[in-house]
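Researcher: Please translate sequence to structure tokens.
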Amino acid sequence: MFDDKIDEIKKKIIALEKELEGEFKNKEKEFFYKIENEKVKFQENVIKEGKSQIISSIKYLSSFPITVILTIPFIWAMMIPALLADISVTIYQYICFPIYKIPKVKRKDYVVMDRYNLFYLDKVEKINCWYCEYFNGVIAYVREVGARTEQFWCPIKHSRGLKEKHSRYDNFFDYGDYKKYTNELEKRRSDFKDIEEK
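Model: Translation complete:
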């Protein structure tokens, strides 16, 4: 009975996510672009107008206090662990996931590098966008690899609610439900049908 209610809520969430995706698609029309062969195409007049609004990189940087500018080396230093995580996790999943029979995470679904191409950004803003989309994309990619790994090795929910759950968490056993854990672990750890169907 309780599981039926959870399934019903999950279906509603999936329907709402699809509706939200449709609304995002409507934004393409609002901002005069379309996606063709995975590339964004803006209308020429929009590009021209957007480029006319660009301010110089010097003016952009001078809008920040010096203390903010001094933090830039610390921000960029984070690229080293991000790059190492990207490489390490990619190697890990390519070696281990076929053995565990876990579907591989498509890196390109998480590391999306497109904002630095926007025509209305100055050079510094483009570099900042490149950094942010790479760094946050890698974090999302690593999290999904970790989520699928956790489903295989330890698919048990925590005793208290999490501020944010990963994509596989709803498939985990309830905390303390040792009967289901004992009886259904093998089935649950290999249940990636929802990913394979996509």
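Researcher: Any highlights?
Model: The chain has nine helices and two strands.
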